[in-house]
């Protein structure tokens, strides 16, 4: 959000919004949010949560039932300042068409935020937990890595602006890390590792931000 002037109300599209945690948080912050979701159970959960919000927040939130690959059916190109697509590419076999559609939704200077599985380190989690068979199997897994995603973002007109590693340490944290002091230290270490090489390169997930030229 630091890319935009303080106080500006942004037009946000959340593709695959799930239970709406991100969408609702942004609506509460004053932004105009449209959530796209195809799972009726998830949509029902969002509507139930939204029903308990003040009228002003309900008015800022729109829910569209549909597939994230069909954004061109529902919206005009350049309709949004921010497009979120978190966790969706994990379920799409060939995501290039989806990403191209999301890129078209961005207004000039708009931000595309992606959260994806880190295809550059698929064996890391299994190996750290001692699942050697799983680690060996993961080496043959084909998934999007940073290099390919960087190329894809450039190709859709939203070149990579910055990126972070997500779940560098938290996946293997001890159960007693929920104590207040331990949790604070864990989150501080996780945040630092997520923006520092070489640690971010072996995170479970990648958070990439592309900006429309």
UniProtKB/TrEMBL annotation:
One of its GO terms (biological process) is methylation. Coiled coil: none annotated. Keywords: Methyltransferase, S-adenosyl-L-methionine, Transferase. Pfam families: Methyltransf_11. GO terms for molecular function: methyltransferase activity. Residues 13-113 form the Methyltransferase type domain. This is Methyltransferase domain-containing protein. It comes from Streptomyces virens. The lineage of its organism: Bacteria, Bacillati, Actinomycetota, Actinomycetes, Kitasatosporales.
